[in-house]
Amino acid sequence: MADFDYDLFVIGGGSGGTRAARVAAGETGARVGLAEESRYGGTCVIRGCVPKKLMVFASEYGGIASDAQGYGWSMERGSFDWQAFSGHLQKELDRLESIYRDTLLKGSGVTTYDARARLRDPHTVELSTGEVLSAKHILVATGGRPVRPDIPNADLGLVSDDIFGLPELPKSILIVGGGYIACEFACILNGLGVDVTQYYRGAQILRGFDEEARGLIADAMSARGIDLHTGTDVIEIGHPDDRPSGAGTNMYAAPASERQSGAEQGGQARPDRGGPVRVKTSTGREAVFDAVFFATGRAPNTADMGLEEAGVKLGRGGAVAVDKYSQTSVPSIYAIGDVTNRVNLTPVAIREGMAFVETVFRGNPTPADHEMIPSAVFTQPEFGTVGLTEEQAMEQEEIEVYCTSFRPMQTAFIGRPDRVLMKLVVSKETRRVLGCHIVAPGAGEMIQLAGIAVKMGATKEDFDRTVAVHPTMAEEIVTMRKPVRSG
Ligand code: NDP
After folding, report:
1. Annotated binding residue at 53?
2. Which cysteines are disulphide-bonded (predicted)?
3. Could you give phi then psi for residue 56, rounded to 5 degrees?
4. Is 452 annotated as a binding residue?
5. Ligand 1 atom closest to Cα of residue 377
6. Long-range residue pairs from 245-250, CB within 8 A, at least 24 positions apart, any chain
7. CA angle 329, 331, 332 (to 5 degrees)
8. Where does the pLDDT of residue 243 fall: very low under 50, low under 70, confident under 90, or very high at 90 and above?
9. CA of 476 to the centre of ligand 1 (A)
10. Residue 150: DSSP 8-state
11. Do the beta carbons of residue 359 and residue 425 sit within 8 Å?
12. Which residues are known to be catalytic?
């Protein structure tokens, strides 16, 4: 048998790669090397879930003073200091990165390489440092990256990687897109006091999620001051002073908030990415924003890695094609996480990494389980979801829909119009809850727990015989007696 430098070489030190490496090394005794070209922790820890959630927290404090006044407190709203927050955030990310590199990886006996790795053949990687290393198994866990739309000057816009390190917050921003990242950052930046406009090309934001929930979130976002335009796509982008001839007087044919920021910026020298940008839309709208943020999707990191040369087949959009065990077309090479573009969520990448270790290093073939994955979109209000949408379930079988939307006690008391939504999609035949959708403050926390019952195959009657916790919002999930629709 060939003598390899390592039993496993992992490319990418994000959530999935780190978990697989440290469990293989720490719990099965495998000799493991890992290369990371950027920062340990990857998208989730450094430029995704973690800093995003901290920004969600930061953005929610702005409304506290006025809410507290409604409850009898005398409290005035202060101002938000981006530099203070951002300095603290960068320190926290440094701390987390060192936990990934030192505690989790080195502490488990993984040898780390701060370098870019390319495949040379099915058992060999070459590093940007010039080192060449062999391994019995190679795990590709290189994640994904944000992509801008294919229009001229798109690089004038920011992407999610740029947001956490902004030197200062823009006064106005255009967010392009209607997915997770677009909607979450529209709410975050709005909460931090930025004048937010959002353009989405489709009819309703959050495509693929439950229709009723999408509608409620879109209404809530607009009610909170986000200038949301659906059916609107960006067709042209440029510096404000590089107007194509003929744009003339139509330049600021946009709402007052947009006009103001355009007027403030007009005629100044334009910095590169992140500076004021003129945008023209498919609907004929033209406006200037202090910044444009493209949240228009992500692509797998597979370019220039030697994958195809080594025989690894790529699928749609350049994602690594894998089987249910995360094995690629080359038996010694596996891939997990966003680079495979299956379900692009951190906990899923971690599960795929664990299943890989179980399969390859414990001799127990274990497919990654992609059924009934609960997830949350951290909009304001939050959205927690597990299982099928009403629309998906209806395609599949006869269903009953149990749904309630109401003004929760805490904010109704102070006259806020906020509404929440609790919805169960139930199979008529088996009575199993096929989907649960919650739009409410804290919905991410709620769906984690509801997700256990749904994953276990709970029926509507199981929910019904669970006693309500009173008074809470979540109690409605066990007190809905009559279906609002069936079919
Ligand atoms: P999404 O795929 O969710 O959304 C991309 C959005 O951009 C869609 O609204 C899409 O429109 C639009 N879009 C795509 N291309 C263009 C274009 N050329 N011009 C205009 N609009 C365009 O991607 P995200 O980047 O928001 O998120 C990536 C993934 O990251 C998510 O799918 C999710 O798995 C994960 N994620 C999870 C989070 C969480 O769990 N809370 C948070 C953030 C990310 P259309 O709908 O018409 O295709």
Report:
1. yes
2. 44-49
3. -60, -45
4. no
5. 41
6. 247/280, 247/286, 250/286
7. 125
8. low
9. 31
10. S
11. no
12. 470
* Minimum CA distance residue for ligand 1 atom 4: 179
Query: Is residue 419 within 6 Å of ligand 1 at its C-beta?
Result: no
**Closest to 295 (Cα-Cα) out of 442, 214, 188:** 188
Instruction: Give the span between the Cα atoms of 280 and 236, in whole angstroms.
Output: 5
Name which of 108, 128, 255, 263 is nearest 196 in CA terms.
255
Q: Is it the case that residue 248 has pLDDT exceeding 90?
A: no
Handedness of CA 477, 480, 481, 487 (dihedral sign): negative
Q: In the 8-state DSSP scheme, what is residue 371?
A: S
The H or E element that residue 32 is part of is strand 32-35
Check if CATH label 3.50.50.60 holds for domain 154-294: yes
Domain 6-144+299-360 part of CATH 1.20.210.10: no
- Of the candidate CATH numbers 1.10.645.10, 3.40.50.300, 3.30.390.30, 3.40.50.150, the domain formed by 375-486 belongs to 3.30.390.30
Instruction: Let me know the angle formed at the C-alpha of 278 by 242 and 188, rounded to the nearest 5 degrees.
Output: 150
Query: What dihedral do alpha carbons 371, 377, 382, 384 form, nearest 10°?
Result: 0
**Is there a common fold for 154-294 and 375-486?**
no
Does pLDDT of 263 surpass 60?
Answer: no
Give the number of residues written for the chain. Answer: 487
> Residue 241: what pLDDT?
82
358 is in an annotated binding site: no
Report the separation in Å between the CA atom of 295 and the middle of ligand 1, taken as the mean of its atom positions: 6
Averaged pLDDT, 163-171:
96
- pLDDT tens for residues 117-136? 999 999 999 999 999 999 99
Q: Is 248 annotated as a binding residue?
A: no
- With a 6 A CB cut-off, is 197 part of the ligand 1 pocket? no
Q: Is the pTM here over 0.90, yes or no?
A: yes
Detail the DSSP E strand segments found in 67-217. Answer: 111-113, 117-121, 124-127, 132-140, 144-146, 172-176, 195-199
Residue boundaries of the structural domains of the chain: 6-144+299-360, 154-294, 375-486
Report whether residue 348 contacts ligand 1, using a CB cutoff of 6 Å.
no
